[in-house]
Amino acid sequence: MADFSSHTPGTFSWPELATTDQQAAVAFYRGLFGWELNDQPLGPGETYSMFQMRGKPVGAAYNMRPEERQTGAPPHWNAYVTVVSADDAVKKAESLGAKVFAPPFDVMDAGRMAVLQDPTGAVFEVWQANRSIGAQILNEPGALCWTELTTSDTKAAEAFYTALFGWVPKHSPEYTEFSVAGTPSIGMMAKPPQMPAHIPSYWMPYFQVANCDSSTAKAKELGGNVMVGPQDIPSTGRFTIVSDPQGAVFALFQFAEKK
Fold it and tell me: What distance in Å separates the CA atoms of residue 51 and residue 35, rounded to the nearest whole number?
């Protein structure tokens, strides 16, 4: 069990689903991961669906607003990074070439956030915790265990994120792994040549599962579309990339047994 009461700055700490059919999406993910549900009112006729395990938050889902849909953005998972100060992080990100999609604002008494786009086109959020730290469980079945950037320019992305968050990179021929305070939890790869040009750089969450193959079968049974896998990463684990019934993309990951 991996429970958290705070997150080290630079950590991806909150996966949040922006979808076009909240009720159907919530049913899909609850069926897949066994998540508990805690709906919070957002406004007239709107709720924020908090996903929980053992009564602790692990993620959330909401219906995309009309202005969000008008940008052409498909259903997707938002990726929040913990920072000490959202305002300072935005100023630094801008100086490094980021675009500000939403300047810092308070989310009631939960925290303060902003929405940014990195110089390669990937969108992410920064989160300054107040009452809410984000996910209180990470790195166990049903919880976020890895967050991965697929980018059009790995060198530019690495320069940006290492300067902004202090991530420490470790390079292999086709993949870069980043560590936060000595713990690897972030990956980066170049956009595959076969990926359509209109697809921008993007962040994607990996959710840990006990058995990748059975969870993949469950995702298909619930209406998900298997895009990649299941397949092995030597000495690391087994993964599948899935799109949910509304089209949001995420990965399932089973760690290899330690010998």
Answer: 6
31-84 pLDDT, tens digit each? 999 999 999 988 778 899 999 999 999 999 999 988 888 877 889 999 999 999
Q: What is the pTM of this model?
A: 0.94
CA dihedral in degrees (135, 156, 87, 9; nearest 10)?
40
CB atoms within 10 A of CB 66: 7
The enclosing H or E element of 202 equals strand 202-208
Full DSSP string of 12-73: EEEEEEEES-HHHHHHHHHHHH--EEEEEEEETTEEEEEEEETTEEEEEEEEPPHHHHHTTP
**CA–CA gap between residue 60 and residue 17 (Å, rounded):** 6
Find out whether 106 and 112 touch, Cβ atoms under 8 Å. Answer: yes
